[in-house]
Amino acid sequence: MRFIKHFWPLFAALALLYVFNRSWGMVPPLGKVFSPFEGFLQHAVAGHSRQDEEILLKGIAEEVTVYYDDNAVPHIFAQNDADLYFAQGYVIARDRLWQMEFYTLVASGRLSEVVGGAALAYDRFNRRIGMARSAATIAEKLKADTLANRMLEAYAAGVNAYIEQLTYRDLPVEYKLLNYSPERWTPYKSILMLMNMRNTLNGGSYDYGLTKVLARYGADVVANLFPDYPALESPAIPEGTEWEFSPVPRPVVPERVTALPDSDLLSFYMPAPRPEIGSNNWAVSGTKSATGLPILANDPHLQLTLPSIWYQMQLAAPGVNVYGVALPGTPNIIIGFNKDIAWGVTNLGPDVMDFYRIQFRDSTFREYRHDGQWKPATRHIETFSLKGGRTVYDTLYYTHHGPVVYHKADPTNTDRVPPGYAMRWVTNETDDSDMLAFYYLNRGTDYDDYREALGYFTAPAQNFVFSSNGGDIALAAAGKLPLKWKGQGKYLLDGTLASHDWQGWIPKEQNPAVRNPSRGFVSSANQSPTDTTYPYYLDWRFAHPARAIRINERLEAMTDATADSLRALQNDNYNVDARRVLPRLMKALAAADSIRRSAEFDAVERWNRRNDADAVGAAIFESWLDNLMAAIWEDEFPRDDDFLFPSLDRTFELINNEPDAPWFDNVNTPDTVETLDDIIRESFNITVKHMRERLGDISARTWALGKVKGTRIMHLVPNFRSFGRIGVNNGGGSSVVNATSRTNGPSWRMVVQLDKEWPVAYGLYPGGQSGNPGSRYYDNMIDRWAQGELDTLLFMKRADEPSDRLQRRMALKPTK
Amino acid sequence: MLFVLIVVIAGLLAVVGPWWTIAPVCFAVCWWKSTSASQAFWTPAMAGITLWMGYALYLHFNSGVDLATKVAGIFTAGVPALAAVPGIVLVLIIAVLVVGPVSGFAGLAGLAVRRFLNAPASP
């Protein structure tokens, strides 16, 4: 009794220490996290330090100098390549370590290790599409490539040098809140970062949706409603460009072009390519510019996140001095410029993901039928170690096409891929090295260097825009493009037929490309890469051409272009779709008195067809267009049932030129035959009704596009809502050049004015250099981005060049 | 005296050690200096609270960004009643609820264990 009387406070204290030192479910260790001495308040930084520092590091050969400028952009000056990539890894890790590792956990299907079972289905899907396995193979192969291996190893060593310095109090705040710590970095993880990009840009498919259409309506309807080329297009490679090569033999279209899904296989669903993942790039030649030399612009559109996907930096060492944005976790500059050249990317969007119906011999899944023989499938066991200790296993079968994404109906499969469909996907190609393409671009000085660099690129296929101070402008598609018969992979394919296999690759030098076209500019906006004369089949559907049409119209008309002309074009809000379809739509509305007298009609009627932030007409039109598409197509092509809608382009053609098409009738109302005008009016009324319910009566403030759209830039962890920014007020839309929607938009805007002496460049992205939500450099560029402004980029000639924008110096010194 | 000793020693140790170093400090100082159970609980509790609150407020008001509100927002998501409370207040409440009891019971434990060892073997 006496013992208990005297010792219970000790036990109470120890119990409290235990309780507060560990996490409970999603509640982090409260003692650690809320102690101001080592918890998250350590990240509430007082501002940008101006203190110079010296850091001793093991792993570098010579001293590296890093200057931070007034936007927290590091300018790294190293004395050899290995030190340069070491320093790049070290410096990025200081700002973005948590984010880098998070992406690798996503790509390798390991998120459930840090967030628990809630992410298991997502992880299983990511494992089953094979990214981690392919990344491991690529990393293994690159060990044989001295250059790539040295670069990746140096980068990893730099990241690890930072990780080794970390104590709990320095850990990025997300680690504290989710209660885990960083693992060592490896070259494999840098490859995983690139796999993530491949998945983002190439990880979608229309195959199932279109196969459903084919099965229900037949080939004639597909040919009519889902044509291989839009009615209105302005292709990336200018129409009429000669193909200066002799094409290799193209595979012949086989008798059977699809394996229709079995009636019980209704559960297939791969995400469709997301139209909001697109990009713009262009370059004007000296004949169009005020300086007499090319100017280049690029703005890749991605999901807007915090921390930002991009990180600005300058990398300099003997033989290289380059500025631009890097992907946290990978060496080199991805989009940028050096003294002589500039380059940028947009997604090409070819069909590089196909599905094959696999006929297994039996339910052991050991053998499958192909080309008249039974062939062995390879089996892999995937292990998932969930946070909290539970382990889950999953069996994965590979055919020669690639992984069988799901081999039987699976209740936990939220992405609903068909049982027994194997996937051939360019993301799982393991040769060449995208990294080397960027390595050589970073060091390029002219057109030949650029073309040679692109030869190393595999995926995701991109339109690389290029300009040089030698006066060249160019656009070239880089990446491996499968050699297909016309229409191959439009539908689900038959895995038993050898003729359905991918038939090799288009020779890379025959990828669509153009140099110095007579019109004086090159551009791309994810539209059809070429006109219909290109000898190879790439895909039947590319991004809606509205952005491309507008960009090319404006560039065509542009003379004496300056960097600011191109900046203005990046922010162009003109709505080409409205110009194309609104006159016909308004005619139908005007015929109805009740609508014609409404304030909403008036707002659209008076709208100047620009998606400006304050435009009420734009807000109505954007919402109306969605409702109009649904009103026309939902009855015959129900999206809930995984049918694909015809494109905007085809729909506009029907509205303007085929008003009597049977598709306008709503088949769900057998007693009445709706006309085009009925559908237009009904969809407008529904739009107005919904907007009134949501926003109250029409007013210039509450119905303005910027308010209705409500652009948001959220943190990568969905639960960390308060780490994001909501209600960013800006214009734009997915079909205008300023492609800012609610959640997606220009993730980096760059304009580079080439110069014989030294280029002048501008750039900005919707976020900030720091990944720390407690830093003012976490989101300091967002407001200027929303306004369409660009920063003048500080591109230093040499390490000792003075600039009043430099705020502090960090010297990395080798330990003796 | 007790109060000042804890604040100074625990403050110095907190700069280099983990968050729980405050507990052994309270335990030892109370073993050494405390005279009553009430003092051995409340003085270290208040010292711990002063130390954590003081440093938290210092960090908060010297920072250019209100990180406390961002972090508090994660925990109060879905509780609209708390949305109006400044983040730093919620953060301080949790910090107080952690450090107060830990320091208090550690201090009380110091006194109690001393009394156990120093007491005559049996009355």
Structural key phrases:
heterodimer; A: about 800 residues; alpha+beta; Penicillin amidase (Acylase) alpha subunit, N-terminal domain; 11-stranded mixed β-sheet; 7-stranded antiparallel β-sheet; 23 helices; globular; B: about 120 residues; mainly alpha; 6 helices; elongated; transmembrane helix (chain B); membrane (chain B); transmembrane (chain B); metal ion binding (chain A); Penicillin_amidase_dom1 (chain A)
**Ranges of chain A with pLDDT <50 over ≥5 residues?**
263-267, 413-418
**CATH third-level topology of the domain at 576-709 in chain A:** Penicillin amidase (Acylase) alpha subunit, N-terminal domain
- State the shape of chain B: elongated
Termini Cα gap of chain A: 62 Å
Just give the CATH class of the domain at 576-709 in chain A: Mainly Alpha
Strand order of the largest sheet of chain A: 1-29-2-3-7-8-9-10-18-19-21
Overall spatial form of chain A: globular
Instruction: Estimate the mean pLDDT confidence of chain B.
Output: 89
Q: Which percent bin holds the helix content of chain B?
A: over 70%
Keywords (chain B): Membrane, Transmembrane, Transmembrane helix
Transmembrane segments (chain B): 6-29, 41-61, 81-113
Active site (chain A): 279
Keywords (chain A): Calcium, Hydrolase, Metal-binding, Zymogen
Model description:
With 816 residues, chain A is of the alpha+beta class. In chain A, 32% of the residues lie in helices and 18% in strands. In chain A, strands 1-29-2-3-7-8-9-10-18-19-21 form an 11-stranded mixed sheet. In chain A, strands 4, 5, 22, 25, 26, 27 and 28 form a 7-stranded antiparallel sheet that branches. Chain B has one domain (2-118). Chain B is built from 6 helices and no strands. Chain B has helices at 2-16, 22-33, 37-62, 67-76, 80-83, 87-118. The mean pLDDT of chain B is 89. Chains A and B meet through helix 1 and helix 2 of A and helix 3, helix 4 and helix 6 of B.
